[in-house]
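Structure ticket #2291
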Amino acid sequence: MRRVFLPPFVATFAAFVLSGCVPAGTPAESPNEPVGGFTTELPDTPGIALLRHVLDEHFEARPANVKTVCATILSDEATPKALPESVETALIERYPELAPYDRCVWKGGQIVDSITGESARLYQVHSLECVASDDCTGMAGWISANLGAEYDQYRVNKGLAGWRFDKTGLAVMS
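Resolution: structure written out below.
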């Protein structure tokens, strides 16, 4: 039997390549790929990618005190409004626990579910500024009341592994 000697760096390199290591940050699936039998595509934009990132974090953590979750992306206006129907439908298809935007309403200084009256949480992406279509900064997080919000600042880049999200700071916490 013939033995083959591999230098240590070859074995290390092979282990690194086969392990699927990726650069720092959090890569995400391409948001426009119909994964898991989804029938509606999502636009492949930095805003949608960042919104999916914060929704992923929320639904992985599953806070017990949050029953209703809605989502939007603020454009140049400061007043939140529903996403286009096709985008909202595609998000709800991916996140069955996500409620349509219109379910989250302001009442008495807090956001509540318009059907149940229980407190709700609205996830938002805003202040998105891009130097290129795949290189942006912005804020994303949630609000539940006048004094109940948490937003982080992000740098959003698209590379070969998909969208990548790096927190660059805590923007608001109340």
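Closing remark: The two ends are 69 Å apart (CA to CA).
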